[in-house]
Amino acid sequence: MTREASPLPSLDSLLRAPSAAVLLARFGRAATTDVLRWILAERREARTFHAPAEEILDRAADVLAASFARSQKPVFNLTGTVLHTNLGRSPMPPEAADAAAEAMRSATSLEYDLDSGKRGERDSHIAPLLCRLTGAEAATVVNNNAAAVMLVLNTLALGRQVPVSRGELIEIGGAFRVPDIMSRAGAVLKEVGTTNRTHPRDYVQAIGPETAALMRVHQANYAITGFTASVPTDELARIAHEANLPLIEDLGSGSLVDLARWGLPHEPTPAEALAAGADVVTFSGDKLLGGPQAGLIVGKKALIARINANPLKRALRLDKGRLAALEVVLRLYLDPDRLAEKLPALRLLTRAEADIWATAERMAALIQRAWPARRVAVEACRSQIGSGALPVDLLPSAAVTIGGGGLESLASALRGLPWPVIGRIAQDRVWLDCRCLEPADEAAFAAQLPVAA
Questions:
Q1: Are residues 158 and 283 both part of a single domain?
Q2: Averaged over 84-99, what is the pLDDT?
Q3: What CATH number has the domain bearing residue 356?
Q4: Number of domains in the chain
């Protein structure tokens, strides 16, 4: 005797089912009801008029779990790019992340002066530190470096010309270009020199009644080599000041310290730019500096005061969480002897090659056990710094390589792990650069590998 299929249950009966209680407790009545109603409508539209209640409730559980899951997940960055823009750039120190979380959980003295009991300034939490670390007269902060450049230009050059070398009209990720930022800021770009050679006379000849400032842009994410010439900051500052103009310098990735101390290539610092005569310097907080996303502006007191008075400043300001994190990170720079130990970005960039090889060899053995049919090896590779910093300088590293066909499926399986693993495909292998896999995280990496087997 053939058993008849269960008719499509009613919404009310589904909500009264014992297994629905778990969904109601976890996801709430409104969300659970909406999803069940949607599933029932989907079945009717497909002319499926019979289904067990438990089948529908199981489907609802899957849909609700997916709907309530956080879309932004922690991942293992094994791409070989340390400051990976798509993966959030610089990892922050735990104490900075804790400070951000603490600030977000409660009321804070964000814009309140505890001594006077009156309104305060949010920049007061970081401006003294930035001045101490860079030698600037004053400092302020906005939500990223593009915003910093736009705010500075909108304040100092609205409707007026700013000469910039053609060799410095950079484009950063997402087709975001300096000329576009200048246009949106209301400044008028005046190109000087050529792509590969710009001379002092090019700037001198470009200065006229409509000139508001000179600007120098650090070639952060590319390099021009060969028959080249550019005007250094001190020479450009002299030209600007002789014409009673300010010099704006955008350093992009912006390191607060000389990286050569740790064997890395030198990157211009804000302190060097200011000492050479720049009047306003902008740089990022979440790249080489190793903090949260922010655009830092340091320079002459009178110019920073004008920048802070611009109504756009309010639209571009930092929230209390990122300010709290940035303050903690800046304080780490007051102890340079322990900076590489305390600052994750610098620790990863300066990690010993032998340590990376040891990690790669341990992980290769575990991966081989998880995928015994695949070819697993440890190979030398080169890591990139990333986020437009020192683009031609590569760091010796070691990677686990996995071959054996179906590489896209393998990469997808790695991305689908509970703690997704992000590598890259090259030379008919998946490459997992182990520079950013620190010993403290190896156990978490290894624990999930059997899931992929």
A1: yes
A2: 94
A3: 3.90.1150.110
A4: 3
Is the Cβ–Cβ distance between 49 and 13 less than 8 Å?
A: no
Token pair for 356: 């990376």
Within a domain: 6: no
Residues 355 and 425 in one domain: yes
DSSP letter string over 140-170?
EEESSHHHHHHHHHHHH-TTSEEEEEGGG--
Same domain, 305 and 369: no
- For residues 175 and 337, what is the distance between their CA atoms, to the nearest angstrom? 38
* 212 is a domain residue: yes
**Pair 241, 363: CB distance under 8 Å:** no
> Do 217 and 117 fall within a single domain?
yes
Domain that holds residue 437: 76-85+347-452
pTM: 0.90
Is the Cβ–Cβ distance between 388 and 394 less than 8 Å? no
Q: How confident is the model over 241-257, as pLDDT tens digits?
A: 999 999 999 998 888 99
Pairing state between β 76-77 and 421-422: parallel
What are φ and ψ of residue 359, in 5° steps? Answer: -65, -45
Residues 327, 353: one domain? no
Could you give the C-alpha distances from 299 to 104, 259, 378, in angstroms and in order? Answer: 30, 22, 48
C-alpha dihedral, 420 to 391 to 91 to 356, nearest 10°: 70
Q: What is the dihedral of CA 166, 171, 176, 180, to 10 degrees?
A: 0
